[in-house]
């Protein structure tokens, strides 16, 4: 059996989102990227006030609507139907990006294709594949106070995604503060420090994380 065939328990996509939600703090303004990060909205701790912001012009995003209750006019930046709250406000993209670029968003949870050991992020395109554009990703990693990347630990073909240097086009250099994968959590206190393995998913060993990670990190 090869390393890539090793069976693990680890976290599901929803459990990864729940782990990311543990980083939320009362009063935070938060932007959620497409994919797994959108699930974070369903795991905001009870009693905590967190305001979700979407770069397409919405502040105060509620959880995903139940089947049959969707409003096609209410969508997030990933074009998924969402719900509104009593305090929801709407505005144009210029105002939305002024919030992001002005440093008014406390936390962004984004997906990732690759993260380097230096904190570089690649999450917007694969050469040779048709894409719709970068969207707000470059602005988010440059303007938001803390960046968490939630992603599978390895690609579909088993290649590590936490690597020494990104091979795909970059979204930003030295921007990632925390990485949450289906196997583990890595964190660093500042952008001059290396990432440290701070948590293992259930059923996952340190040895397995080392086998499936080519980036340098501390334990």
UniProtKB/TrEMBL annotation:
Q: Which domain of life is it from?
A: Bacteria
Q: In which family does this protein belong, per the annotation?
A: Belongs to the 3-oxoacid CoA-transferase subunit B family.
Keywords of the record, alphabetical order, are: Transferase
Q: What Gene3D superfamilies is this protein classified in? A: Glutaconate Coenzyme A-transferase (3.40.1080.10)
- InterPro entries noted in UniProt: 3-oxoacid_CoA-transf_B, CoA_trans_fam_I, NagB/RpiA_transferase-like
Q: Name the chain's protein.
A: 3-oxoacid CoA-transferase subunit B
